């Protein structure tokens, strides 16, 4: 089964075009209303299942990325179950998106399936719409996590794919044995 076809807004089309034109490799989407870090897939392979674990071929990498953010966050890494996000404490503050709740059209899934970019979703605080006076605290709670996450861009394989003359090869397909998800080189 496939997700239903959705109307794509012009601004969404513009972002999709932008993502395909620049070889991003790491991204985070910041949301509010909970304290947890989610990773793809956000859409369950079984659309009739509300909360079904739906891993990508890069499950280990996504867990490492989500954990890098969560472990550096002073509240997400707090083991207290009396805070919002308490039901994620035993999971270390991270969860597969579809296992939390399944939805179609998410940027993390799009990035993984259609670009080289690995994206996590960070629920940065308990309030969906925090008050202005709460923003400074939320920023400080997330600053080190964001920096730690950005440093993760240096993990994994990186380099230049070139021909025998040393010229970069555009759109070369790179495969890793055991992971059925290829990436391509940039410009």
From TrEMBL:
Which biological process terms from the Gene Ontology are attached to this UniProt entry? peptide metabolic process; protein processing
Q: What residues does the Peptidase M14 domain cover?
A: 1-153
An example of a GO molecular function for this protein is: metallocarboxypeptidase activity
Q: Which GO terms describe its cellular component?
A: extracellular space
Active-site residue numbers: 123
Q: Which InterPro entries match?
A: CarboxyPept-like_regulatory, CARBOXYPEPT_ZN_2, Peptidase_M14, Peptidase_M14_domain
Keyword annotations: Carboxypeptidase, Glycoprotein, Hydrolase, Metal-binding, Metalloprotease, Protease, Zinc
Q: Which cofactor does it need?
A: Zn(2+)
**Coiled-coil ranges per UniProt:** none
In which family does this protein belong, per the annotation?
Answer: Belongs to the peptidase M14 family.
Name the record gives this protein: CBPZ Carboxypeptidase
Species the sequence originates in: Eudromia elegans (Elegant crested-tinamou)
Lineage here is:
Eukaryota, Metazoa, Chordata, Craniata, Vertebrata
């Amino acid at each position: 089964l496939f997700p239903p076809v959705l109307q794509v807004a012009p601004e969404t089309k513009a972002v999709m075009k932008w993502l395909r034109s620049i070889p991003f490799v790491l991204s985070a989407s910041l949301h509010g209303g909970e304290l947890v870090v989610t990773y793809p897939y956000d859409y369950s392979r079984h659309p009739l299942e509300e909360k079904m674990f739906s891993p990508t071929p890069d499950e280990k990498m996504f867990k490492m990325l989500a954990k890098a953010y969560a472990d550096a966050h002073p509240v997400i890494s707090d083991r207290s179950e009396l805070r919002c996000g308490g039901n994620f404490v035993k999971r270390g503050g991270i969860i597969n998106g579809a296992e939390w709740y399944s939805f179609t059209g998410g940027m993390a899934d799009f990035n993984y399936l259609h670009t080289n970019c690995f994206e996590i979703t960070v629920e940065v605080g308990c309030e969906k719409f925090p008050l202005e006076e709460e923003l400074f605290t939320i920023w400080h709670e997330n600053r080190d996590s964001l920096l730690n996450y950005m440093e993760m861009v240096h993990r994994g394989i990186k380099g230049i794919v070139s021909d025998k003359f040393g010229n970069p090869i555009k759109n070369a397909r790179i495969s890793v044995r055991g992971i059925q998800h290829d990436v391509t080189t940039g410009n």
